Fold:
Amino acid sequence: MIETDILISGGGVAGLAAAAAFGAAGFRVLCVDPAPPVTEREAEGADLRTTALLQPSVEVLAAAGLWDRLAPHASPLWTMRIVDATGPGGAERARRDFVATDISDAPFGWNLPNWLLRREMVARLAELPGVDFRPGVATRGVLTRTGEAIVRLSDGTQAAARLLVAADGRASAVREALGIGVRTMRYGQKALAFAVTHPVPHEGVSTEIHRAGGPFTLVPLPDWQGRPSSAVVWMERGPEALRLAALPVPDFEAAMTERSAGLFGPLALASRRTVWPIISQIAERFAAERTALMAEAAHVVPPIGAQGLNMSLADLRLLLELAAAGDPGRPEALDAYHRGRWPEVQARIAGIDLLNRTSMAGMAPITDLRARGIGLIHDIAPLRRTLMRAGLGAR
Ligand SMILES: Cc1cc2nc3c(=O)[nH]c(=O)nc-3n(C[C@H](O)[C@H](O)[C@H](O)COP(=O)(O)OP(=O)(O)OC[C@H]3O[C@@H](n4cnc5c(N)ncnc54)[C@H](O)[C@@H]3O)c2cc1C
Structure:
């Protein structure tokens, strides 16, 4: 039997961040994942999504000894631009800029590719003597009792941990084993995620363009092969997303340039296209005996407003704070974790669900209401600042 303080089931971006953070805080950590991390952009299975890490997340990553590794690769986000492209022929009708310097002297956040996050996180784990990362090993079964969680692993071994952290994704094996239910909302939507280059520089502006079917978002990346580059998340109804994903490259480039209202000039595809199903989901509870659910094991949101992984790092921040005050899996700590995170996550899911539904709508009354709502939020300065701070997850 392996004995450890923290067992992390799942080595996605959230699980790796948790392993580094608990390891850096001096805990013995075992992290398992059946799928070895893909750490190169061009490799088969590379995660080509990017994550806009917002200010509070950077604090968590810095404490884990990760931020110094990540900062040189990050693109700062100074402005969030929302564009209404429901004019004739998909032309721009209105735009509003939300500027980071309105609320602090730092950018809203920093954008990084997920494959690069994995590369740097795995390298960081190798520096931490208390962390044992085992790719190729899955969680198979869980038994909890007052003092520990006992986890049966796919390599035939068993591990006992004071705290079991479920970071094993939206179909979490730990959550299933413990019989914790989920509430799921489906939209019939998919997101295409890929990189582009464009002649017009992004100047640190993240641009969300609304028409129908879902937002089309460009988030700044460092230049690619000498040209300005952005990560794109393009949300559409499922069949349309699959049609776009299968188009020949010149046709796809024409379609995305049209969908971007031509704001950055002709867009050129600079990576493979990847397709992601879109749901909202929340677990009934974020904690059980000796167990905490975090990241997509606990909550999934559509990729709007860069909330998903940032909410996961907020989960991690609270778990670390509670662990610093005593036995990390004690019942009071897990209770405080559930009470501290569940209502906050539920409120964010409700907000993003509403944004997504209005962004999907193509009917004039709703698009008009959407345009007026964005204008109202933007033009009333105190409301704008409050919502910008809330979007960052500031406490
Ligand atoms: C298109 C798109 C764009 C996004 N953009 C942003 C953004 O800008 N900002 C943001 O904050 N968030 C964003 N998100 C959300 C973010 O990508 C996710 O929150 C994050 O990648 C999910 O991380 P995770 O580690 O929870 O889950 P996963 O990446 O799903 O990791 C779960 C891991 O658990 C492992 N696993 C599965 N079964 C087992 C088992 N039995 N035992 C052990 N391990 C197991 C899996 O192999 C996997 O590696 C975006 C999401 C999408 C779809």
Observations:
- The mean pLDDT is 91.
- The pocket of flavin-adenine dinucleotide is lined by residues 9-15, 32-35, 49, 51-52, 138-139, 167-169, 173, 191, 193, 233, 276, 295-296, 303, 306-310, 312 (CB under 6 Å).
- DSSP finds eleven helices and 20 strands in the chain.
